[in-house]
Design goal:
The protein has helices spanning 12-31, 33-39, 44-72, 75-95, 99-126, 131-155, 160-176, 193-196, 203-232, 237-249, 252-256, 267-287, 291-320, 326-354, 357-375. It is mainly α. The model has no long low-confidence stretch (mean pLDDT 84). This is MFS transporter.
Length: 388
């Protein structure tokens, strides 16, 4: 029998390297950033100010990168350049101490990562492999990163975690170089800038922008303060990392078996369920009598809600927007979500300083309830099979 020669381009190995190491780098930076900054002596208000920079820079960078990707149609080149920037800036972040410098660096690093994320999600849903079998490696990479970053912070020099980002960025570049092309519709003379942004006149898209504004603002704030809540309840830093690891691992079946339910249920149903999960999660954080309840809540709900919404975003955008505008539409949506994160991070920081984290979560539960009500008005066709 003749052996088939291994070809790296389009191979499953390329996708494993892409998603594991891209999300590993993201996980190293985002999972422990709040603890790292408070460990440097930053107040909660200063920490929230620094973290909010990622969203401010993302407002500009995400839609611009999405538009460039739809126009140039060279996602691997675009992603490679941005990942190289992430690696270099992460090393600089490790030696920075000034609050404003940290703010600028965080904004640039997370702006680049956030701009890559919509492209990577589109790649996962457009390649030769089923979405769940590809995207699952990103979840595993993020989970490993959260655990490892917390261990490094506790037992060695915390700055080492940012050197890891530089290394994983290089490996992720090698992975992206081997992925398949994203499908686009044939270009024609009618593909003007006005048509590229025609989705901005679609009522259901605008409604989903508002829904995303609420969900992602609350979710980003939760990602920042849930590790601190666990610390305040007496959970050691390394144990917090373990909790974050398993909370991410628990979402693996959601991604792996996404083909069983994501294309079956409507965007309206899935969005409503996600907001219900968020509402219950925030109430439990607000009234948790001890660390055990908070840990159980983080394990069962923290990562699942955010991951489910990322898939919902891809599903709804693909159901509303033509293929040549998908990256642009996701970029605009993510930029709007970034504005929400800016407002929520800064308001949340000052609110926690004035009251407590539990009060913050009670307010966030109200936002989740509002999002649930708005999701009842979503009307999007459920005809495209994105996850099967």
């Amino acid at each position: 029998m003749k052996k088939t020669k291994f070809t790296y381009r389009g191979s499953y190995l390329a996708y494993v390297l892409t998603y594991f190491f891209f999300y590993f780098g993201m996980g190293v930076f985002t999972s422990v950033l709040s603890m790292y900054l408070t460990g440097l002596g930053k107040t909660k208000a200063e920490m929230s100010f620094i973290v909010s920079a990622s969203s401010l820079f993302g407002v500009v960078m995400i839609p611009v990168v999405g538009y460039i990707n739809d126009r140039l149609r060279k996602p691997r080149v675009i992603v490679g350049v941005m990942l190289a920037g992430v690696g270099v800036l992460s090393v600089v972040f490790a030696v920075a101490r000034n609050t404003f410098v940290l703010y600028l660096l965080d904004g640039l690093i997370m702006g680049l990562i956030s701009s890559i994320s919509p492209i990577s999600e589109r790649m996962a849903g457009a390649g030769r492999y089923r979405y769940g079998t590809v995207r699952i490696w990103g979840t595993f990479g993020y989970a490993v990163a959260a655990q490892l970053a917390c261990i490094i912070m506790e037992v060695t020099v915390p700055q080492l975690i940012f050197a890891m980002i530089a290394v994983t960025s290089l490996i992720a570049i090698a992975g992206f170089c081997g992925t398949d092309d994203i499908p686009f519709e044939p270009e024609n003379e009618h593909d003007t800038a006005d048509r590229q942004f025609s989705f901005l006149r679609t009522p259901m898209y605008l409604l989903f922008v508002v829904i995303g504004f609420i969900f992602m603002g609350a979710s980003n704030l939760n990602m920042t303060y849930s590790p601190i809540l666990l610390q305040e309840l007496g959970v050691p830093t390394a144990a917090v990392g373990t909790v974050l690891f398993f909370s991410t691992v628990i979402e693996l079946p959601i991604i792996l078996f996404s083909n069983k339910f994501m294309d079956r249920f409507s965007g309206k149903t899935l969005t409503a369920v996600d907001f219900a999960i968020m509402f219950v999660q925030f109430l439990l954080y607000s009234f948790a009598p001890n660390a055990a309840v908070a840990i159980a809540t983080v394990l069962l709900m923290r990562a699942i809600g955010a991951t489910l919404f990322m898939m919902i975003m891809l599903k709804i955008i693909r159901g509303i927007v033509r293929e040549n505008s998908v990256s642009t539409a996701m970029g605009v949506l993510n930029a709007t979500n970034a504005v929400s994160a800016i407002l929520m991070q800064n308001i949340g920081g000052h609110l926690v300083e004035a009251t407590s984290i539990r009060t913050l979560y009670l307010l966030l539960a109200g936002f989740a309830a509002a999002g649930f009500v708005l999701s009842m008005f979503l009307r999007v066709q459920n005809t495209k099979r994105v996850f099967s």
